[in-house]
Amino acid sequence: MKITDAKVFIGGPGKNYVTLKIYTDQGLYGLGDATLNNRETLPAIYLRDYIIPNLIGKDPRNSEDIWQFLYRGAYFRRGPIAMAAFGAVDMALWDLKAKLAQMPLYQLFGGKSREGALIYAHATGSDLEQLLDSISHYQEQGYKAVRVQCGIPDMPSASYGVRDNGNKNDDYITDFSGIRPKVEIWDSERYIRYMPEALAKIRDKFGPDLKILHDVHHRLTPREAAAFAKTLEPINLYWLEDPTPAEDQNALRMLRQHSTIPIAIGEVFNSIYDCHTLIKDELIDFIRVSATYAGGITPTKRIVDFAGFHNVRTGFHGAPSHSPISMAAQAHLNAWAPNFGIQEYLVLGTKECDALFPSDHRVENGAFYVSDANGLGVDFDEKEASKYQYEAGSHPIVRLEDGTMWNY
Q: Which of 122, 217, 218, 332 is catalytic?
């Protein structure tokens, strides 16, 4: 069995999905996702100019050797651009491998540990009243876990995860009006004063059974994060996400020493080396890597196994920048992982997206169920893909009130 060709497609409904399709001499093909949010053309160029020419003629069943060839052979290692490109190749090869075995992918990992995998939605509001309505909206759909983000009174602009229009169903942060990003203004003191009270009111209204998650999105210093986490302990959050930037992994020790609140980190990590200390020293409770940015299924599964030895559960990233292909890859990992925690799930199910990526995977009562189709269980319609093209867009950037650049 040999790889005969591979193509890269950029575009999709409301998103610049980067889809890799690898063809073989036996008529089977595999699919992978290389979408790097707001930098989508870069992994696509890496795939087209450097990786695909080196795939032609290789045996796709040798996915381990191909991954090592890509990673070790590049000399300059890691980084989100390279790892997203490697991730797409690795997903496509696992997809091919499971199709060749005529099995759903999770069977190659050792089978299922569960039927439905718990997912969480994003509830948001420009004020607390609107947020409470958004939470109720998702509860009515059967969600048992909800990430909550709320506008902060007197904050000069919208907080992270809160759109100016306050639409509770608007999960798309990227602004496609142009390449220049909008500016959000941030004030940590206002945030720290307001959010504990808001989260306490959410707990009072919805009771002890709702799993409440909250994302700080790297906005606090380690000392601020430790103090903030301590005030939230009575609320019994399911997790506090990205309370402080994790480049200095020792900074998380201060937070751990001052609070027992569960911590989730890792959506921007690109390899096991980014999270090795955090997992080994049990400074986090959930690892948030994704199968795209972490370099594919092969390295992500290794991270999951390593985390399982240290009481760290999975909480894979699942923003709209991940196409249904990478979400399917993570769904198969979720079905298998003995240390599964939860899966972020932003609604992808538009008619246009379903037409581009048809599958029988389904969401019911706040859980994701993988289909028993061979491989990843997701297809890709090239005719539908021809309707879309790349459209430049950007996330916002963050500044303090005096103009200082801050962490997005």
A: 217
Phi, psi of 156 (to 5 degrees): -60, -25
pLDDT, the chain, mean: 94
Question: Structure tokens of 52?
Answer: 């695909």
Residue at token pair 């994790």: 246
Residue 174 to residue 181: CA distance in whole angstroms: 9
This prediction's pTM: 0.96
For residue 297 the two structure tokens come to 């299924």
Under 8 Å between Cβ of 11 and 388? yes
Topology of the domain covering 108-375 = TIM Barrel (3.20.20)
Answer for the pair 120, 106: CB distance below 8 angstroms, yes or no.
no
Say which of 160, 194, 293, 388 is annotated catalytic.
Answer: 160
Contacting residues for 42 by C-beta, under 8 A, at least 6 apart = 36, 81
217 among known catalytic residues? yes
The H-assigned helical ranges of 207-341 are: 222-232, 251-258, 272-280, 297-308, 324-336
Measured CA to CA, the distance from residue 58 to residue 36 in angstroms comes to 26
* Residue extents of the structural domains in the chain: 3-104, 108-375
| Residue 201 burial (CB count, 10 A) | 15
Q: Average pLDDT in the 156-174 region?
A: 65
Please say if 160 is a catalytic residue: yes
| pLDDT exceeds cutoff 80 at 23 | yes
In CATH, what class is 3-104?
A: alpha beta
Sign, CA dihedral 274-280-284-288, equals: positive
Name the 3-class secondary structure at 390: coil
Q: Which residue has the higher pLDDT, 165 or 92?
A: 92
- The C-alpha atoms of residue 100 and residue 46 are separated, in whole angstroms, by 27
Please indicate whether residue 239 or residue 347 has the higher confidence score (pLDDT): 239
List residues bridging with 286 in a β-sheet. Answer: 264, 313
